[in-house]
TrEMBL record:
<comment type="pathway">
    <text>Amino-acid biosynthesis; L-methionine biosynthesis via de novo pathway; L-homocysteine from L-cystathionine: step 1/1.</text>
</comment>
<dbReference type="GO" id="GO:0047804">
    <property type="term" value="F:cysteine-S-conjugate beta-lyase activity"/>
</dbReference>
<feature type="region of interest" description="Disordered">
    <location>
        <begin position="1"/>
        <end position="37"/>
    </location>
</feature>
<keyword id="KW-0028">Amino-acid biosynthesis</keyword>
<comment type="similarity">
    <text>Belongs to the trans-sulfuration enzymes family.</text>
</comment>
<keyword id="KW-0486">Methionine biosynthesis</keyword>
<dbReference type="GO" id="GO:0005737">
    <property type="term" value="C:cytoplasm"/>
</dbReference>
<dbReference type="GO" id="GO:0019346">
    <property type="term" value="P:transsulfuration"/>
</dbReference>
<dbReference type="Pfam" id="PF01053">
    <property type="entry name" value="Cys_Met_Meta_PP"/>
</dbReference>
<dbReference type="InterPro" id="IPR015421">
    <property type="entry name" value="PyrdxlP-dep_Trfase_major"/>
</dbReference>
<protein>
    <recommendedName>
        <fullName>Cystathionine beta-lyase</fullName>
        <ecNumber>4.4.1.13</ecNumber>
    </recommendedName>
</protein>
<dbReference type="GO" id="GO:0030170">
    <property type="term" value="F:pyridoxal phosphate binding"/>
</dbReference>
<dbReference type="InterPro" id="IPR000277">
    <property type="entry name" value="Cys/Met-Metab_PyrdxlP-dep_enz"/>
</dbReference>
<dbReference type="InterPro" id="IPR015422">
    <property type="entry name" value="PyrdxlP-dep_Trfase_small"/>
</dbReference>
<dbReference type="InterPro" id="IPR006238">
    <property type="entry name" value="Cys_b_lyase_euk"/>
</dbReference>
<keyword id="KW-0456">Lyase</keyword>
<keyword id="KW-0663">Pyridoxal phosphate</keyword>
Length: 444
């Protein structure tokens, strides 16, 4: 199998530029070669190690349930291990800066593997803005398994410290959070959690950025996990979940659970994920350049935009101290639910769909879709705005995306055309209008 080209001809860190060629903030934590990495991350993503006896260039799909040969051989049964899956796991460990990576059938499957180790009486400290499915699983654990789940504003280290105790078995964080794009101090919280209970596991859901932009294990987390369904695969053609750890015993514990429950990723899906990862760097660079321009466009027209690439983000400095990019998910409010519905329904290029991290751009109303499983009273208590619109930006031509958003904002009556271009209408001008559009509800 041919290896990567010499280190001096490639592997220069990619410059973070927006589409106008302006420098984005510099990388605070360059993707330095570590954990067996010889090259820059963008290079390592492309090359996987080892081949088969035929020197195949693409890793073969070992589409088999069982293996001949009896005791003592490396593989006996695909639930317990499969060469295509192992190949993916080794590749992921390298790019996640992990000692060991494990892959399962979905992001929620990964969250399930991690939280299965909790016992009745254990305490979990987590955020007040979380992906709806994670919230649902934690609610199940607190209702049926006797786990005390404490939702706090994880942007406040003091609030986290108040919730921690010697019984804290896990701290589960998202940063940026989905969908409010709040930033959480991974290193600060990890230190506080380990001070409260040295055995506490700090788990970070890295779905919103991927290992290309953030490496929580380097910041003191014990576990990193993410939905491989998003950026890692990048084409919305596979469901996958990824777990990374540095502690050998913890890796064995998680493997035990995956083998026991049979949730390991199937060979074909492992192959699809391997293929997707090769283009992660180039997709992510284009997606976040587009996202940055769109966030700027919306903000300049008077919308309250949440995106860590904008200097107006309240935790801009914290974000750039722990991540190498802003990702491609942003959200904004309009001041009116019917108006938000009309905007979502008026786009032509942006698809109305859950998920993100894909090559094509999506638009959604989280309270009706990805976060509908959080009941309305809890959404209100946690200040999740009902009118919030989430945009997940793809790799399309930026002008086409901005043209589509512009025509949607005009058609929906969210902006008026003035001599200076678009101007967002005030809340008073838009509030209370009834929607004639179909509901975009996705019942859990
Ligand atoms: C932040 C976050 N974590 C985890 C998940 C779960 O991933 P999956 O859909 O692959 O189960 C999702 C989305 O589904 C998500 O947005
Ligand atoms: N009906 C699904 C919704 C999946 S949301 C997928 C993704 N995390 C997102 O944020 O868009 C469910 O209830 O899990």
């Amino acid at each position: 199998m041919s290896g990567p080209p010499p280190a001096d001809s490639v592997g220069k860190a990619m410059k973070h530029l927006d589409l106008d060629g302006h420098d984005l903030p510099p990388s605070p934590a360059p993707s330095s070669p570590s954990n067996g990495r010889k090259y820059a991350l963008a290079t390592e993503l492309v090359y996987t190690e080892g081949g088969d006896q035929y020197n195949s260039s693409s890793v073969p799909i070992y589409q088999t349930a069982t293996f001949k040969g009896g005791p003592g051989q490396e593989y006996d049964y695909t639930r317990s291990g499969n060469p295509t899956r192992s190949h993916l796991e080794r590749h992921l460990a390298k790019i996640m800066n992990a000692n060991r990576a494990l892959v399962v059938g979905s992001g929620m499957g990964a969250c399930d593997v991690i939280t299965r180790h909790l016992k009745p009486g254990d305490e979990v400290v987590t955020g007040d803005d979380l992906y709806g499915g994670t919230n649902r699983l934690l609610k199940f654990l607190s209702t049926y398994n006797g786990i005390d789940v404490r939702h706090v504003d994880t942007t406040s280290l003091d609030s986290v410290k108040t919730a921690l105790s010697s019984k804290t078995a896990m701290v589960l964080l998202e940063t940026p959070t989905n969908p409010l794009i709040k930033i959480v101090d991974i290193a600060g919280i990890a230190a506080a959690a380990h001070a409260a209970n040295p055995a506490a596991l700090v788990a970070v859901d890295n779905t919103m950025l991927s290992p290309y932009l953030q490496n929580p294990l380097d910041l003191g987390a014990d576990v990193v996990y993410e939905s491989g369904t998003k950026y890692l695969s990048g084409h919305h053609d596979v469901m996958a979940g990824v777990i990374g750890v540095n502690d050998v015993a913890l890796g064995e514990k998680f493997f035990f659970m995956i083998n026991s429950t049979g949730c390991g990723l199937a060979p074909f899906d492992s192959w699809l994920l391997l293929r997707g990862i090769k283009t992660l760097a180039i997709r992510m660079e284009k997606q976040q350049a587009n996202a940055n321009a769109i966030a700027t466009f919306l903000e300049s027209h008077g919308f309250k935009v949440r995106y860590p690439g904008l200097k107006s983000h309240p935790q801009y400095a914290l974000h750039w101290s722990q991540a190498r990019g802003a990702g491609a998910v942003l959200s904004f409010e309009t001041g009116s639910v019917p108006l938000s519905e009309r905007i979502v329904e008026s786009t032509r290029l942006f698809g109305i769909s859950v998920s993100f991290g894909c090559v094509n751009s999506l638009i959604s109303m989280p309270c009706r879709m990805s976060h509908a499983s959080i009941d309305p009273a809890t959404r209100k208590e946690r200040a999740l705005p009902e009118d919030i619109i989430r945009l997940c930006i793809g790799i399309e031509d930026l002008t086409d995306l901005i043209d589509d958003l512009s025509q949607a904002l005009v058609r929906a009556g969210a902006v008026k055309l003035t001599e200076h271009g678009f101007q967002a209408l005030g809340e008073e001008e838009t509030r209370g209008e009834t929607s004639t559009t179909r509901q975009v509800v996705d019942e859990p």
